[in-house]
Specification:
single chain; 1261 residues; mainly beta; 7-stranded mixed beta sheet; 5-stranded mixed beta sheet; 16 helices; 12% helix; extended; disordered N terminus; disordered C terminus; kelch repeat; EGF; Sperma_CUB_dom_sf
């Protein structure tokens, strides 16, 4: 700010130095006040140094804090107190922040202290900014307890809000990206404590704390003993239930935890809760998991895979009848742990496909990998196993060859590497061929997929489904559910690509006909979501639950708390027959994403079980959604038609029998008969879809009319009957379809791999059109476009794979990744597309990422050459070499030591602090841990951590410095590269051996090594030397050659700060420079060079005299105004003669114009007179007899005697009889005092009778 004000004052003074006004002192006073305020506000005090001390007007932050006012968390700190508060700081947290807290409270007894960590408030950017909580002293701890993100609400359960670390240590790490910030968090911790509804108590004062676990009092339950066993006393006052030792015992007509729900209505109940949450739990739930698959197998359920942040079994079996979970033993090779995969059951055979395979390599990312980043490469493996054999044997059935009769998906015989997809088992054709349909998903090569893969189980081959109709998009984390009633698949939601760099959740719903392979659009859900669960709770009624709605602010959670949550508990019902969404009650404490749902077998009523998921913590609990009473219980039509909304059962009213029956009993096609009412309001046609349909297939799938364009009504196609299309089979290829199909692909690889098939055309003009039309990637427009000509296709074919850059997933280091505009996740050592972050790390699996190589830490712990930098990385620690000079190595580890295979003795290991002596091996320390100066190895600084002036290199950890090589033109160079900081403006090159010709600095023929800026005569130049790159400058050179031989040359220069100047001259006859002025203060210098003393001008294309100006001995910021001017002297005699001549000429011109105006006005008057005379002459002549009454003295408007119209009918002559004044005599002479008065009037509309004036314009004659 000070530099900017100095520049303004300098320019203001130089421009207005000769003017005197009241404004100048006023402006200067304002600027002085601003400078004073800046000086006062920039000084620190005990009030604005939030977490630090004020030292020499600078805030010196305490350990674990950073920022100009120490207001943001930063670095790694060890907290050893039994209780405390952890916060990101005051206000919103900062961008690009990494903060780490190690909790190591003192141990009182023989066992490690349990540490309760409780979120008091929490608000971060959902999916991007995370707080990691590890049960242990490092990121490779015994257990990953939580990965918190999003907005925590007050009604969230105690289980979600708090965790207990039992290893005696807890490591908390917070990471924020460089885009969006929110309010942050406040976290409390306490050793030897138990969960509670308040950080000041244990077990909510309803139980006893025993080694971190609450033992609740009677009639209280939950991990924090904060949940009454009988909520609302089971509504016993209403007679709905009574409280027992095991909970509420509801009346036969009531249901629910508090007996508050009618049994006839659909609703939620807990199948089982988390460990410690359910007092009635007898059998332990399975290990917590997310991104798994849940399948019904006979009377049991099978859980397949999932992310568990630990090593667990791949298969678990749930006995519904007994409520017992068992791991399924396997023998031989088995699929690796994975999540976001798909699985189906074909009889007794389990088929698993794709997914993100977990990696347990601890050295990923140079040792930065932790428990949160297990999800790695995407798989295309197909694993099959029979569940009716013991032990279960897996075999890898991934196809190795393509079928000659089927088109492989994007030419991949073994299927695509994909995650976040869904699979449904169907039986196609008359032969009922078993096929696993795989919908969409995300590929690390092709991005978000928009194709349907078909796996033919009996043939073990893949095929790409030739889909038709609406261009459906569902991307990653959508849901696909098979409806046995309509025999169609319903695909909802998902994370989709909006551009090459953006992603967003979808609310769309599509219907897929498995036989015709046609997609149709259906009404979208009220809110978008992905990673949700969907299942048909009863035929024709689909339940959608949970998911990630990706809210980015706390305001979003307030305006739509159920639909805009990062982890939602929102539940929706979709009525397939009536095409309508219904919101249903959400279960308390059930918010989650990445869970799994399945129809519950062997249940008295239709029901669905939803198990596991993630809401910042992995969940192992399960919810059951039960349908209500059957259709036969409804005696009235209204109750029957509203059964879907109330009971989650699709019913239909038979008009002939006046009976409510199950919709499945009537049948899908029969439900559209006139004798049956299945909907209170029948589905309506959405004409808006017609405007969005760009192709024939999409238009017809939406129920619109296609006749060259898509229209909502058939009447719009009457003008084009020859273009009317009735069925999808009649649709032909069009440019609109090509643009639409290609436009769905937001990556180059997917764009070039996509092909559209059409029949081969006949030969035309000796050439044959290619049988396919492909897409090509336009890097300038960053979009996929259709190749409309054969030349486009041949160009793409000849370019081959070189037409696309390498996919982000193939780049193996940070520099290559960020250079290609990808995202590099250092902790997982993965490179992903910018629009694929949510699909690549759905559970917060990336602890730190970067998009710029300058902030990359891609080489892992070994990349940190100093203890301070190593300390900022939560996965690393510093092993001192023991020599006392501060040298050492940064290796993966935790508070208790390095991870294997690294070795470091305990007294040399530093995790949250650094050795007292930090001299980087270039010096030893004195008794006060200060480096003894001077440092060795050409290093300087209190810690010998910088190279001496004139040297470059990296002195950290024993590195060496070497002298700068700058040809004597620089005093310093870049410390990392040795590039010289030239001290004279205009020099360029790494060694200051060139002139910056681009900016008009040129070398001199006689003065080698110097560069000059050529000043143009009669122009004033201003040079601003206040930029960051100018901070090393101390000199600048100018030159000028006056070109007017007969005019004196005026020179002026003004400098805003102290600077010296030399001015020399060189003539054509004497090439040696001659000094005119030396060591002059250039603050404000002027001089006139007379033409009599110097020869100005140019002869034979050679300048006769050249002036050289050398400005030196300054320190930026500096502003210089300099000019050479040759203005001739003013000749007063010639000036007055010229002025007088011009003035007289102006008078003559004005007089001539005045005369012309007079002549023109006279001409216009004559013309008007001629027109009037013609009008008068054109009137008809006639006689009029007037009878006068004697003694008449009437009043009012006189009546005309005659109105004589002129030719054209637009004017007339009006004649009146008027009485002349008598002048005091009897009558006026000569004829009785009467006269005829005439006037020329215009003819128009007559005014109203009551108007005071007539509407005639008259001109008296």
């Amino acid at each position: 700010m000070v530099e900017s004000l100095q520049m303004f004052l300098f320019l203001f003074k130089s421009k207005y130095r000769r003017k005197c006004s009241w404004f100048s002192p006023f402006l200067c006073s304002v600027l002085i006040v601003l400078l004073f305020c800046h000086g006062v506000l920039s000084k620190c005090s005990e009030h604005n140094c939030t977490n630090g001390e004020c030292n020499n007007d600078t805030c010196v932050c305490f350990e674990g804090w950073q920022g100009p006012e120490c207001q943001f968390c930063g670095g790694k700190v060890n907290l050893t107190t039994p209780t405390g508060i952890i916060t990101d700081g005051l206000g919103n947290y900062s961008v690009s922040t990494q903060c780490t807290w190690l909790l190591s409270p003192p141990r009182v007894g023989p066992t490690p202290p349990p540490i309760r960590i409780r979120l008091e408030s929490f608000a971060t950017e959902c999916g991007w900014d995370h707080l990691y909580v590890y049960d242990g002293d490092s990121v490779r701890a015994e257990k990953l307890l939580a990965v918190f993100s999003g907005v925590l609400e007050k009604q969230d359960s105690s289980w979600t809000r708090q965790v207990v670390a039992r290893s005696g240590f807890a490591l908390l790490h917070f990471f924020s990206d460089d885009a969006y910030v929110m309010e942050g968090f406040n976290v409390t911790y306490a050793a030897y404590s138990c969960p509670s509804n308040d950080h000041l108590t244990n077990c909510s004062n309803h139980g006893e704390c025993d080694d971190g676990t609450c033992k609740c009092e009677p009639f209280w339950t939950g991990i924090a003993c904060d949940q009454p066993l009988c909520p609302d006393e089971c509504n016993s006052a209403l007679g709905w239930g009574r409280c027992k030792a095991t909970g509420c015992e509801c009346a036969p007509t009531r249901a629910g935890e508090d007996c508050g729900r009618e049994r006839a209505s659909a609703g939620w109940r807990w199948a089982w809760r988390e460990r410690g949450e359910d007092v009635n739990s007898v059998h332990a739930p399975p290990p917590a998991s997310a991104g798994h698959v849940l399948l019904a197998y006979g009377e049991d359920l099978i859980r397949v895979g999932g992310e568990t942040f630990s090593q667990v079994e791949f298969l678990y079996r749930y006995k519904v009848s007994t409520g017992v979970w068992q791991s399924v033993p396997t023998h031989g090779d088995a699929p690796a742990a994975r999540s976001a995969h798909s699985a189906v059951l074909y009889g007794h055979e389990l088929i698993v496909y794709g997914g993100a395979v977990a990696s347990d390599d601890p050295e990923r990312g140079g040792g930065l990998a932790g428990l949160e980043g297990r999800a790695g490469r995407l798989s295309n493996e197909v694993w099959r196993a029979r569940l009716d054999t013991e032990p279960v044997r897996w075999h890898n059935a991934t196809p190795a060859a393509c079928s000659p009769h089927r088109h492989a998906p994007l030419a991949h015989c073994g299927g695509l590497h994909v995650s976040g997809h869904t699979a449904v088992l169907v039986y196609l054709g008359a032969t009922k061929k078993p096929v696993m349909l795989v919908f969409f998903g995300h590929s690390d090569i092709y991005g978000y997929l928009h194709i349907v893969q078909e796996y033919y189980i009996e043939e073990n081959v893949w095929s790409a489904a030739p889909t038709q109709g609406w261009p459906a998009r569902a991307g990653f984390g959508h849901s696909a559910a098979w409806d046995a009633l309509s025999r169609r698949v319903y695909i909802h939601g998902g994370l989709v690509s909006e551009s090459e760099a953006t992603q967003a959740p979808s609310a769309a719903l599509f219907e897929y006909d498995v036989e015709s392979r046609v997609f149709k659009p259906l009404p979208s859900a009220p809110t978008p979501r992905y990673l949700h669960s969907a299942v048909f709770v009863s035929p024709g009624v689909m339940l959608v639950f949970g998911g990630n709605a990706h809210n980015d602010s706390a305001a979003a959670a307030i305006t739509n708390p159920t639909g805009a949550r990062c982890y939602s508990a929102g539940a929706l019902l979709y009525d397939v027959r009536c095409s309508r969404w219904w919101e249903t009650r959400s279960p308390a404490g059930g918010a989650r994403a990445a869970g799994a749902a399945c129809a519950l077998p062997q249940h008295s009523r239709p029901a669905a079980l939803l198990h596991g998921g993630f809401n910042g913590r992995l969940r192992s609990d399960a919810l059951v959604y039960e349908a209500g009473e059957r259709c036969a219980a409804h005696a009235h039509e209204d109750a029957c038609l509203n059964s879907t909304r109330r009971a989650a059962v699709a019913c239909a009213w038979r008009e002939d029998l006046q009976l409510c029956v199950q919709l499945e009993e009537i049948g899908w096609k029969e439900s559209f008969d006139d004798a049956v009412r299945a909907c209170a309001i029948e589905p309506t046609f959405d004409g808006a879809l017609c405007g969005a349909a760009a192709a024939c297939g999409a238009c017809l799938a939406a129920g619109c009319q296609w006749c060259g364009a898509c229209h909502a009504h058939r009447t719009s196609c009457k003008r084009y009957p020859h273009q009317l299309v009735q069925t999808l089979d009649q649709c032909t290829w069009s440019d609109e379809a090509a643009r639409e199909q290609c436009g769905r692909h937001h990556s180059c690889a997917a764009c070039h791999a996509h092909k559209h098939h059409k029949p081969r055309a006949a030969k035309t003009n000796g050439t044959t059109e290619l049988p396919q039309r492909a897409c090509y990637w336009d890097y300038d427009a960053i979009e996929c476009k259709p190749a409309n000509t054969s030349e486009d296709l041949r160009a793409i074919s000849s370019a081959g794979g070189a037409a696309c850059r390498a996919p982000c997933s193939t780049l193996q280091n940070c520099a290559n990744c960020t250079a290609e505009e990808c995202i590099w996740c250092a902790s997982a050592a993965r490179c992903v597309d910018k629009n694929a972050y949510g699909a690549s790390f759905p559970l917060g699996g990336c602890r730190a990422w970067a998009t710029s190589g300058g902030v990359c830490a891609g080489a892992g712990c070994a990349a940190h050459a100093s203890c301070a930098a190593c300390r900022g990385e939560p996965a690393c620690g510093w092993c001192d070499d023991g020599r006392g000079g501060g040298r050492g190595a940064c290796v993966p580890g935790g508070a208790r030591g390095p991870h294997a295979p690294a070795l470091c003795s305990h007294h040399r290991w530093h995790f949250t602090s650094c050795p007292a002596c930090q001299c980087n091996g270039h010096a030893v320390c004195d008794a006060r841990a200060r480096c003894v100066q001077p440092c060795g190895g050409r290093a300087v600084g209190p810690h010998c951590d910088a190279c001496a002036p004139g040297h470059w290199g990296n002195p950290l950890n024993g590195g060496l410095c070497q002298p700068c090589e700058c040809n004597g033109q620089a005093a310093a160079c870049a410390p990392d590269s040795g590039r010289c900081y030239c001290s004279t403006k205009g020099l360029a090159g790494d060694r200051c051996d060139k002139c910056d010709n681009t900016n008009h600095y040129h070398a001199d023929l006689y003065n080698k090594g110097a560069c000059y800026y050529d000043l143009t005569v009669d122009y004033q130049f201003t040079f601003n030397l206040s930029k960051k790159e100018d901070r090393h400058l101390s000199a600048i050179n100018f030159r000028n050659a006056p070109v007017k031989p007969d005019v004196d040359a005026d020179f002026s220069i003004a400098c805003s700060a102290h600077a010296r100047m030399n001015l020399t001259v060189r003539s054509r006859l004497d090439p040696a420079e001659r000094t005119l002025f030396s060591d002059v203060n250039c603050t404000n210098f002027k001089y006139k060079f007379a033409k009599s003393e110097h020869s100005f001008g140019i002869e034979d294309n050679v300048t006769l005299t050249t002036f050289f100006v050398y400005v030196y001995d300054f320190r930026p910021p500096l502003w210089i105004q300099i000019s050479f001017s040759q203005y001739p002297k003013l000749n007063l005699q010639q000036f007055f003669i010229t002025f007088s001549s011009c003035f007289l000429l102006l008078l003559l011109v004005a007089a001539a114009l005045w005369k012309i105006k007079q002549r023109y006005d006279m001409y216009r008057r004559r013309q008007r007179l001629f027109v009037e005379m013609e009008q008068m002459a054109s009137r008809p002549f006639s006689q009029v007899c007037v009878e006068l009454e004697k003694g008449g003295g009437g009043s009012g408007v006189p009546a005309p005697v005659a109105l004589e119209p002129c030719a054209g009918g637009r004017a007339a002559v009006l004649s009146l009889l008027v009485r002349l004044p008598t002048g005091g005599t009897g009558r006026a002479p000569p004829l009785g005092g009467l006269a005829v008065a005439s006037a020329l009037v215009t003819l128009g509309h007559h005014p109203p009778a009551h108007a005071p004036h007539n509407n005639k314009r008259a001109r008296p004659r």
